[in-house]
Amino acid sequence: MLDRLNQAMEHIETCLPGPVDAAGLARIAVTSEYHFRRLFSALAGMPLSEYVRRRRLTVAGAEVLAGERTLLDIATRYGYGSGEAFARAFRAMHGVGPGEARRTGATLSTQPRLSFRLVVEGSSGMRYRVVEKGEFRVVGRRARVPLVHEGANPAIASFIRGIGAETLERLKELSDQEPSGIVGVSDQLDPSRAEGTELDYYHGVLTSEEPPEDLDALPVPAGTWAVFESSGPFPQALQYLWRDVFTQWFPSNPYESRPGPEILQVTVTDGGARADAALWIPVTRTV
User: Confidence band (pLDDT; 50, 70, 90) for 126?
Assistant: First the structure.
């Protein structure tokens, strides 16, 4: 898997300064575009689109300093519709406009080429199981919230506080699916997984029952799920669990993620300092 990812990284360089087709990169990596984008984001720490943008502006910066083409020619060559648009993007990355950079020989920023390698840590195994699950519904309350990579998510915390105790008791009575009880469900995540992008968050239960009209419902088709278990400091252990799934488990196992909601069941202990968690990720087998 890592070899194929590195081949995709090499292909990006052959495409510059022109457009980079994410679907083509996914084909090189022998995976779906959906999974490729999510895997890249987890491994690289930035969305694929951001990496391509920064690599394009890195190469463009070298051409600006070389002085062999006009700035408008460079802007057009790297896909910008005008010199102004190129100058804005150039300044955002390098901290200086292209004209000034050329006149003064300014020091520019750079985005190094990425390559991926296996790091053997071996400190602990990841507990997981694979489950075939029939269709079900997520029923509860829904909110549109921003994605937060580290630390508590204030929008989710505020949303949960606004759900009344009576509603939570009604929801618990509807729960008839594993994982049981109240769960957090993330749906419609941006493929880039960039900080601040929005998602649909459900606080509710899994059920086979018809939902009451005053509650939000998300139908989920039958499919395969990988279930990961973790214990540790709250909320860091939960966020690290998601990271480890995509940076360690997927590259080492014959599965890839598929579109669908992600389900998190959490039991908080030690006055909110620690948590036991089960993370359900929709997957498909690749071989």
Answer: low
> Tokens for 225?
């799920």
pTM for the structure as a whole? 0.71
Q: Does the pLDDT of residue 124 top 70, yes or no? A: no
Which of the two residues, 236 and 213, has the higher pLDDT score?
213
Largest separation between any pair of C-alpha atoms in the chain: 71
